[in-house]
Design goal:
The longest helix is centred in the N-terminal third of the chain and has 14 residues. With about 375 residues, the chain is an alpha/beta fold. It is built from eleven helices and 18 strands.
């Protein structure tokens, strides 16, 4: 690996980031084509069903003769199968490109094999350039393919004593405007935002992203018995983006009413009185929900922590403190009997957002 390889791969990674939150169920991919140490073409995958990054990059080169003996830098191994688009490996092999530098190999067994195909076609292949960065870029895609579940993110706003609401369930507004804006960015980055039915009934949120330039997330409500009312604020905008996760035995007539309004109903298997975590994950993936920021409340966070579903956390702490008796803790589940059984955050960072403290880390 040399310094120039890293420079061009970093450019490919930057391009890939332009489509964050828009490519599900596909990965984020960027590609750069270099000849005589100059970039002659570049592209990124914009959305599922549209051309892949490698094709976008090759199409950006006006004179296709310039591709002869060029080098392609691509963040993810070129695909080697026929899906919604033809294999990128074949297109590269036919282009005249002589060398392909890859950030990471594909974890999707259906699409992998492009690197071997290129080698057999006489093309020099180098793998693992800025691999750590490439894997972090596609942490959502990797979770989807390896563990067959969405990438779940815990987002909570708390007082210094860990309470997300004071007595009676009052939770507006714990953190600052800057923290709220950050939360809206998360909604625009991830595919979906989710809350439990108690949050809908107590706070009646819209759950939209209110920052220009960001997409609207799919909005999920966990509601075992369909207690949600048709007048809930969440139905007042983008109703087709609302997904109600409920049990098989909840009211059939209520389901029909909600579907007639335009909402989506996801029926989930139950296990020990709660949603079966594997079935929930599978059903969300089926609905192209590859990533989801969970905003609570307490019982919902408790369910995700107890079932080891969370991948990442954004925890906001406001510079406020009060008594905790009768208040709601961020994670509403049974406490372990010893510290060895607590959830541990790794790769943790801490910074100020407005007057609040944001703790970010991975489970």
């Amino acid at each position: 690996m040399n310094a120039k390889d890293e420079i061009f791969m970093r450019r490919a990674l930057t391009l890939a980031k332009k489509a964050i939150g828009r490519t599900c169920p596909n990965p984020l991919v960027g590609a750069v084509i270099v000849k005589d140490n100059q970039i002659i073409g570049e592209g990124y995958h914009k959305k599922a069903g549209l051309p892949h990054a490698e094709i976008e990059a090759m199409n950006s080169v006006k004179n296709k003769n310039d591709l002869k003996d060029a080098t392609m830098f691509v963040t993810l191994e070129p695909c080697n199968h026929y899906g919604k688009t033809p294999p990128c490996s074949i297109a590269i092999a036919q282009s005249g490109i002589k060398k392909v530098v890859i950030g990471m190999l594909d974890v999707n067994k259906t699409a992998s094999g492009g690197a071997e195909y290129l080698k057999k076609s006489g093309i020099e292949v180098v793998c693992g350039v800025l691999e750590e960065e490439a894997r972090k870029l596609n942490e959502v895609f990797i979770e989807n393919k390896v563990n067959k579940k969405p990438f779940f993110v815990m987002k909570a706003a708390m007082l210094l004593n860990g309470s997300i609401a004071v007595k009676g369930g009052v939770s507006k507004w714990i953190t600052s405007d800057k923290a709220l804006r950050f939360s809206h960015k998360l909604r625009g980055i991830y595919d979906a935002v989710a809350v439990g039915i108690n949050t809908i009934m107590m706070d009646d949120p819209l759950l939209t992203c209110r920052i220009r330039g960001y997409k609207q997330p799919k909005r999920i409500v966990f509601d075992t018995n369909l207690r949600i009312t048709v007048s809930a604020n969440i139905f007042s905008k983008y109703v087709n983006n609302v997904y109600i996760v409920t049990s098989l035995f909840s009211s059939a007539s209520k389901k029909k009413v909600l579907e007639a309004m335009g909402a989506n109903i996801i029926e989930c298997e139950m296990s020990n009185g709660e949603f079966d975590s594997k079935d929930l994950s599978s059903k969300l993936i089926e609905n192209d929900i590859c990533s989801c920021v969970v905003e609570g409340g307490s019982r919902t966070h408790g369910y995700f922590v107890k079932n080891s579903l969370y991948n990442k956390a954004y925890l906001f702490y406001a510079p406020k403190i009060t008594g905790s008796y009768g208040a709601f803790n961020a994670v509403g589940s049974q406490a372990p009997s010893n510290l060895q059984d607590v959830s541990l955050l790794k790769d943790m960072s801490c910074r100020k957002v407005g007057c609040d403290i944001l703790v970010e880390g991975y489970f």
